[in-house]
Specification:
alpha/beta; 305 residues; seven-stranded mixed sheet
């Protein structure tokens, strides 16, 4: 534990230092006309592609060691692939777009894969993801004011770009079950994905219908994102739809207009978004676990506002 905490401190210190460098660089960002010229030049002169891991830390009173551990692992991978894989610790969508644009213009490259790492909040009763302090859901994904920074990032994406929404339930289209005090509520994750598809109009969008875990192996093209949390509250019957969809992911593309089910998504050590050859929930272990948990469902274990 001491070693992990020591590495986390180093990671946080590195993040703070890099953030200051970006702040200084962003203050000298070009005007809109200059940026348009640079973007056109970049498309003609681009020398390759870059992958991004956009990290968001939830503003909590308690330290989120798991989140910092995820950030640490991402930074370690990016260290071994410094010209291919970049980690952005974003305070907001504006902060993220400025940092991403700075890196792309400096390197004269476009985006190949971009992963928005975030928490999903089931208690909200709708699918969402965050970039720093900014939250995106079906409620605002069509709002031109809310999405302008996502649109800035999308300028550097095309049909070869993959966009991953790394928050739990982001692709969920089921109904949050009714409770004694509230009616069933649709999650609208498909609407969120379609909205993202409208922004990243040439690219493919990926999101999970269930939990997105942070197990060992998330950068090894394995089932690091698949699985289930162990906390007792997740055996509440309101989570039944989530258990039924463990390991299920969706892909949406505006170019085809299709919402497809795809095998469980994974990242490799360069930050590339890939589909596993198999579905996680097709394994015997996963099937047996879901059967056992379904027999243990109780109401009133989890508490929501």
């Amino acid at each position: 534990m001491k070693k992990i905490l020591f590495l986390i401190v180093i990671s946080v210190g590195s993040t703070a230092t890099k953030s200051q460098v970006f702040v200084n660089s962003i203050s000298a960002m070009p005007s809109k006309d200059e940026a348009a010229v640079k973007l056109e030049d970049l498309y003609h002169a681009n020398t390759g592609r870059i992958n991004f891991f956009i990290f968001t830390r939830e503003r909590k009173k308690k330290i989120d060691l798991l989140a910092f551990y995820t950030l640490l692992r991402a930074r370690v991978k990016s260290t071994f692939h410094p010209k291919k894989f970049y980690v952005v610790n974003a305070r907001s969508a504006r902060d993220a777009s400025a940092k991403v644009e700075h890196i792309l213009i400096k390197n004269k490259k476009l985006i190949e894969n971009i992963w928005f790492d975030s928490h999903g909040h089931y208690g909200n009763r709708y699918s969402s993801f965050r970039i720093g302090t900014d939250q995106f859901s079906f409620k605002n994904i069509q709002d031109s004011n809310a999405i302008q920074d996502l649109q800035k990032i999308a300028k550097y994406c095309d049909h070869d770009t993959r966009v991953g929404i790394g928050s739990c339930y982001a692709g969920a289209d089921f109904y949050f079950p009714a409770t004694d005090s509230t009616p069933a509520t649709r999650m609208n994750g498909d609407s969120l994905m379609i909205g993202m598809g409208n922004i990243f109009a040439k690219s493919s969008i990926y999101a999970s219908e269930s939990w997105v875990m942070a197990k060992p192996g998330i950068f090894k093209n394995r089932f690091g994102f698949a699985g289930y949390p162990l906390n007792k509250k997740f055996k509440d019957s309101v989570y039944a739809p989530v258990w039924e969809r463990i390991g299920k992911w969706k892909q949406y593309s505006l170019l085809t207009g299709e919402m497809l089910s795809v095998p469980t998504i994974a990242l490799d050590n360069r930050g590339n978004i890939n589909c596993n050859k198999a579905y996680y929930n097709a394994s015997k272990k996963a099937k047996n676990k879901m059967v056992r948990v379904s027999k243990q469902f109780r109401s009133g274990i989890a508490h929501f506002n």
